[in-house]
Amino acid sequence: MSRSFKIIRVGDRMDDNILQEMIGEISRTIFNYCKAKTSNMEDAEDLSQEILYELWRSAKNIRDDKAFYGFMWSLAENVFKQWYKKKKQHNNKGMI
Fold first, then answer.
1. Does 35 map to a domain?
2. Residue 68: its pLDDT value, please?
3. Cα separation of 34 and 51, whole Å?
């Protein structure tokens, strides 16, 4: 993460343009995280999209600017756990 962002607020919400720029800059980092967590590129792409979508949906409400990256990694881990659980259930159904 090469840049430091000053998060601009519109009322209690993070500015959409700043959030979009932040997500653009961290998307490769998230994708690399997903590649490390999955067994193939397709799964890494799907998982990274899910994480970035949830980040876009949820991060607007972060009130503490310094909490963004901690929030991002917590969210990434939680989305990965949900994704893994769904994938495992799907794979187990195919075995029956």
1. yes
2. 86
3. 9
Distances (CA, A) of 40 to 16, 26, 49, 63: 32, 20, 14, 36
Separation CA 46–CA 58 (nearest Å): 18
Give the global pTM.
0.79
Per-10-residue mean pLDDT, the chain, length 96: 49 73 92 96 96 91 81 96 91 66
Do residues 14 and 62 lie in contact, with contact meaning Cβ atoms separated by under 8 Å? yes
CATH of the domain at 27: 1.10.1740.10
Nearest to 33 by CA among 18, 44, 22, 42: 44
What is the domain count for the chain? 1
